[in-house]
Design brief:
mainly beta; single chain; OB fold (Dihydrolipoamide Acetyltransferase, E2P); 1 helix; globular; 85 residues
């Protein structure tokens, strides 16, 4: 798990079938002191997060593929929690 900030979302007309119906968020991983930690990337949203929200993300690809119900899905990152601080 890692802390991240939602900085936007993605719209795609062509994507892997397993991602149909999932909201794709652009997230910026963060250090504990609100400093960026690497480059932003896409994560599927399982909780309804929005721009500016601080979230917990997981890189457990197996769990993400289980969520989208497709063992061959390219998904790796998923938003799993909303921070309340």
């Amino acid at each position: 798990m890692q802390l991240a900030r939602v900085i936007g979302h993605a719209t795609s007309t062509v994507k892997h079938p397993s991602l149909t119906g999932w909201k794709l968020l652009l997230v910026q991983p963060m250090h504990e002191r609100d400093r960026p930690d690497g480059e932003p990337f896409l994560a599927i949203d399982a909780i309804g997060a929005g721009a500016g929200d601080e979230v917990l993300i997981s890189s457990d690809g197996a769990s993400a593929r289980n969520m989208v119900k497709d063992r061959k899905s390219p998904v790796r990152w998923v938003v799993i929690g909303l921070c309340d601080r």
